[in-house]
Specification:
- The chain is mainly α and about 150 residues long.
- The protein has a domain of about 100 residues.
- About 65% of the residues lie in helices and about 0% in strands.
- It contains five helices and no strands.
- The termini are far apart.
Length: about 150
């Protein structure tokens, strides 16, 4: 598989992960696995870790599985898919966990249009503390109404 094709698979995977994050959040996290995601909306614990972090582990296993399929079973696009999932997860961690939720105290003073829009959209999502009515947005896709 050529480098160009590998890059296209990587980029496509990264973009598909934006859909997967939205879909998983709306229909799985705010659906049948709300019991795991709930502590992300209702902080009733003192731990830095949340049960919600299990979703990160799931995607890490999928990413690693793709790389293993590439290395052990010659599944040619496995590396590009695994790295695409990893890159999206890393970007999501930086935007969601570090920038928005400040799990590490970085980028507190970021105040550009994108930063304000993403924070505003996420705040709208978190205004609902229950399973229902949680607007879900992606990391890259945020409705323009939040970019005032």
């Amino acid at each position: 598989m050529s480098l160009i094709v590998q890059l296209l698979v990587f980029i496509t995977t990264f973009l598909v992960m934006e859909f997967m994050a939205w879909f998983t959040h709306k229909y799985v996290m705010h659906g049948f696995l709300w019991s795991i995601h709930r502590d992300h909306h209702k902080k009733n614990h003192k731990s830095w870790f949340e049960r919600n972090d299990l979703f990160f582990i799931f995607y890490a296993v999928v990413s690693a599985g793709c790389v293993i399929l590439w290395g052990e079973y010659q599944f040619t696009p496995g590396l590009a898919i695994g790295l695409g999932i990893f890159a999206y997860g890393l970007a999501y961690f930086f935007v969601h966990d570090i920038f928005i939720h400040q799990r590490f105290k970085l980028w507190r003073n970021a105040n550009n249009r994108y930063a304000r829009g993403v924070r505003r959209a996420h705040k709208m999502h978190h205004k609902h503390l229950d399973k229902a009515h949680g607007e879900c947005f992606g990391m890259l896709w945020v409705p323009m109404k939040y970019f005032k």
